[in-house]
Amino acid sequence: MSILEMRGISKAFNGVEVLRGVDLTIEKGEIHTILGENGAGKSTLMNILTGVVPMDGGRITFLGKPIERPTVSLTEKLGIAFVHQELNLFPTMKVYENLFLTKEPAYPWGMLKKREMIARARRFLGELGVEIDPTALVSELRMGQKQLLEIAKALFFDAKLLILDEPTTALNNEEIDRLFAILKRLCKGGTSFIFISHKMPEIFAISDRYTVLRNGEFIAQGNIADTDAESLARLMVGETYSSGDVYRQRTLGDTVLELSRLSGPGFHGVDLSVNRGEILALTGLQGSGSSELMQAVFGALPIESGTVSVNGKPLTRRGIHAAMQAGIAMLPSNRKENSVVPDMSVLENVYLAKHTLSARRQHIPRRAELKKYESLKLLLNIKAGSGSEAILSLSGGNQQKVFLARWLNTGSSILLLDNPTQGIDVGSKAEIYQLILMLAESGKTVLINTLEIGEIQKVADRCAVFYDGRLIKLLSHGEISEHTVMMYSTNAAQTMEGQA
Ligand SMILES: Nc1ncnc2c1ncn2[C@@H]1O[C@H](COP(=O)(O)OP(=O)(O)OP(=O)(O)O)[C@@H](O)[C@H]1O
Ligand SMILES: [Mg+2]
Hints:
alpha/beta; 25% strand
């Protein structure tokens, strides 16, 4: 029996159509993935279903009854819960207060039942296997914990249909496994899920059926068991899709970046030298230290000992500004927490880093900026309008491209990219890989921290594998394979050597 039917949904923002006659059917007890490129309309369709934005046309039926005009409170009451792509927690409130928000149990005389709320929150989080103290402040939680709390919040009031819009971007593999186990259990109990993700392995691990959108139109639906990643990618992108190899061998220049015996929070004694025009991948399991190392090179984390040299000169001043002046740029991971300045326009978000470097200039040359913005927009294929739009009106993946533009715009010679394709669709990923190669060919040095081995193979000249805070293996391009990377990042290689 289908629990939800959406028929002929259409929507325009400022005269631009972003959904055209889209259909979606969700069955009881299924996990249904919605796929589509960045800006295809996935989040907007969900915003319409849950009453966040009004639809221009179409029909919605939930549990056999039409919903004429969905509103947030009505759909909540009907049992539809939405975990947004952007987090919606109140950071200055406690975990249990966020869980019970607007539904707090109270005594007849009005006082809230605080002890009961804490106890129920603790029991519930325990049942889910989520290790979070209900009395902790949300701002004190790690990103992964916040994301799990957001999901727990949606599950707390027995939703019949739960929408998860890219829920795993900030979770580590262990947390993802735990989340998927919870979803499968709830599915057996009859809860339905709409799942939005760009990660094919996840989609195949968790979903029963799929719906593909392209440019705001319904393209296809079917059973996951009857398809494969390649066919889905083709449906999403259209005939132009090519999964072809991108790596090109190049001649590299002299050493540009040199780390010697570098130690800091989470990494120890790292020696590494990277050449002009080189693309070096850093990888390792969550907590291996590769991301922390990158942040320390950028001056965002302290260095305890050792040196960072650029073009043979050790950096004596520390901090982000000094790193930027030495020509280092960094795209951090977790767009939502580390990159978005929500009150600023798209253009202001692009120019943020550049303005920091040229803070003493009196005028902002608006015309020149707009011209540069248009060229970056073209280069990165950013789906956005004039630049004066609010950054939050862009789809998640297009926001990420804006932050890449932010750093390309500074003209830095060393680019540190931490998980750069987070939230980026398959077609745009291939474009970004091409772009990274092009940047390297033009003499930039690129360090890319990623867990995706396919990504490493597509771009990297060498791959530095981290384990427990140490660089344990440097692989050449030819040596990079799923097998070798896993061997070293789980430390299986050393364990086996030790046993031999
Ligand atoms: N509030 C808004 N105002 C103006 N335009 C909007 C608004 N919300 C979404 N859009 C536009 O609608 C289109 C569809 O965006 P949507 O967020 O639904 O894409 P998406 O499929 O979720 O993409 P992604 O995978 O990148 O998250 C985009 O072009 C986006 O810029
Ligand atoms: Mg989206």
